[in-house]
Amino acid sequence: MKKVLFVCVENSARSQMAEAFFNKMAKSARAESAGTKPAAAVNPMAVEVMREVGIDISAAKPKMITREMLEAADRVRTMGCISGELCPATLVPTEDWGIEDPAGKSIEKFREIRELIRIRVEKLVEEMER
């Protein structure tokens, strides 16, 4: 089964939303997410905006990225965290989506970012399941 790894610094919002969307949409691939400096918990606003679209990520926990995760991934998508030491260099196909971090922003901004992630994940699922 193909695997995608979504990475952001804290693994508390963008990458968690991407993982949840991907795993809901994909039939023949799976996703996981991780961070380079994981937060203590998933951002409550991320939980709220995902709940609005019928996806519960309240039990999700931020995780530290590992070499094993990178080696197991067919694709890696970073969420706009390319800043040298904060994001990993990998040998698997990696693409940075350049998605703004919604932390500390309004619920409307979280919704905007959620929808951007949904659109990009839909395209990725289509591409990986061809």
How is the largest sheet built, in terms of strand order? 2-1-3-4
Shape: globular
Helix and strand sequence: EHEHHEEH
* Count of strand segments: 4
The total count of helices amounts to 4
Q: List the uncertain runs.
A: none
Q: What kind of sheet is the major sheet? A: 4 strands, parallel
Average pLDDT: 91
End-to-end separation: 13 Å
- Helicity, as a percent range: 25-40%
Structural class: alpha/beta
Note the beta-strand portion: 15-25%
Oligomer: single chain
Radius of gyration: 13 Å
Topology:
Elements: E1 2-8, H1 14-25, E2 29-35, H2 44-52, H3 67-72, E3 75-78, E4 94-96, H4 107-128
Parallel strand pairs: 1-2, 1-3, 3-4
Descriptive account of the structure:
The protein is of the alpha/beta class. The chain is 38% helix and 16% strand. The chain contains four helices and four strands, in the order βαβααββα. The chain has a four-stranded parallel sheet with strand order 2-1-3-4. α1 (14-25) packs across α4 (107-128) and α2 crosses α4. The chain starts with a strand and ends with a helix.
